[in-house]
Each structure stands twice: as structure tokens, then as C-alpha cells.
Amino acid sequence: MRGEGEVRAMPDLASVQIGVEGDGLSRDEAYQTASTAAAAVDRVLADFEAGLGRVTTSALAVQPKTRWRKGESQRTGWQAFRVSVIEITDTSRVGELLHALAAAGANISGLAWMVAPANEAFALARGMAGEDAAARAEQYAHALGISLGPVAWASEPGLRSTGQVGGTGPMGLRAVAAASVGAGAAEEPINVNPEEITIQAALEVGYYIVAAQSES
């Protein structure tokens, strides 16, 4: 028997991708320009440290810039860039943080809202799934004129295999917002409003059937 539960919850985590870049005629010049921009962004992150989780660097590169001219590729300079992913634990300050990062020269993209795995909404959804499975089983048993025994096994969909039951729950749910902000922020922060995220849980349960006793 399969039971399902659904709960809506407001995000309690957010993540965003930020990038800095620098151009130069030489490799070192491009790197130093990007390094200066990165330092300005890092100062902003330090100011917001209390409301941040992990800060990870997803890309760092120094590469030549080229253009196509007269049938061949010609180098015009160098470009350096760094891309980082920021986890924000204080969702009330997302708009303020993005405003400060843009003012510091960061390129911003990939804003995503998440519900953390420890959020009680997951437990509520799982509880609803278990109750739904039990209620459906009782209803089908009554319709078939049989009696249910104890639970034989229970598993989230796709986790049960012969001789083994186990697995872990969801690691968090995410809603991605299509947002991109370049350097040079406005004087006032742009409003950033999250929306509820739907959390779904499902449980598959097997029951023993109680054999009907023969009449003497």
C-alpha cells in the first residue's frame, strides 16, 4: 500500500552564485584586477558572516581573450574570474546581501530557495504519508472482506529490495528563482520575496493478512 503526504513550508535557506572578473593585457594584470574585485566581495561576506553558511569556490580561472579576425583567432588580452556559491541561513537578509554584493562589483545569478532537511515540515509530511497508507489499507481490507495483520515492511518508494529495507530521506527541497544582477547596484535594495515550497513524502507499506478461522 502506498501513502502520500504533502506540506507547504516557507524556505529557511537560500543559495546564490556570485562571480567576479578582471581583464588585463597580461595574465598577471588580469589576475590582480580580479583579485581586487574578489577582496571587495569577501569584505561584504565577512560583514554578513553571521547569516551565512558555507561559502565555496566553484570556479577559478585565468584565460586568454581572443577575437576572430581575417580567418584566424587573435589574442586581445587576458581575463581572470572567480565564481562562488553562497549558502544563506538568514533568509530575511537575502535582499540586503545581494544589494551589497552588487555594489561591491559582483555578478549575481542562480538564486535558489530551499527548505533545510531538519525542517519539521518533512516530519509532518512523512507522518501524513504513514497515516494515509494505514487508512487506505484499512479501506481496501474492509472492501475485500479481509483482516489486516501487523506491518510486514515499510519503505520509501524505490528503496526496498529483496532481503533489505533501508535508505535515507530527502536532503532538502529547492525552488530556483530566475534572477541575474550585474555590477553597479541601485541605491535601494531590490525586494526579494520567497514563495512557499511544497514538500511531498510517500511511503510504501506491506501488511500481513490474518487468515480467516474456519467455523467448527
What does this structure look like?
It contains 3 helices and 11 strands. By secondary structure, it is α+β, with helices and mostly antiparallel strands. The chain has one domain (2-189, 197-210): Alpha-Beta Plaits, CATH 3.30.70.2970. Strands 2, 3, 4, 5, 9 and 10 form a 6-stranded antiparallel sheet that branches. Strands 1-11-6 form a 3-stranded antiparallel sheet. The longest helix has 25 residues, at 120-144. It is elongated and about 85 Å long. The model is unreliable at 162-171 (pLDDT under 50).
Which helices and strands appear, and what pairs or packs with what?
Elements: E1 2-9, E2 13-24, H1 27-47, E3 52-69, E4 72-88, H2 94-103, E5 107-115, H3 120-144, E6 147-155, E7 160-161, E8 164-165, E9 173-176, E10 180-181, E11 197-210
Antiparallel strand pairs: 1-11, 2-4, 2-5, 3-4, 5-9, 5-10, 6-11, 7-8
Largest sheet: 6 strands, antiparallel
Number of strands: 11
Q: N-to-C terminal Cα separation, in Å?
A: 33 Å
CATH superfamily: Protein of unknown function (DUF541), domain 2
Shape: elongated
CATH topology group: Alpha-Beta Plaits
Query: Helix and strand succession?
Result: EEHEEHEHEEEEEE
Number of separate domains: 1
Taking pLDDT < 50 over at least 5 consecutive residues as the criterion, the unreliable ranges are: 162-171
- From the alpha carbons, calculate the radius of gyration and give it in angstroms: 27 Å
What is the mean predicted local confidence, pLDDT?
A: 87
Strand content: 35-45%
Work out the helicity level: 25-40%
How many H/I helices? 3
Structural class: alpha+beta
CATH class: Alpha Beta
Mind telling me which CATH architecture this is? 2-Layer Sandwich
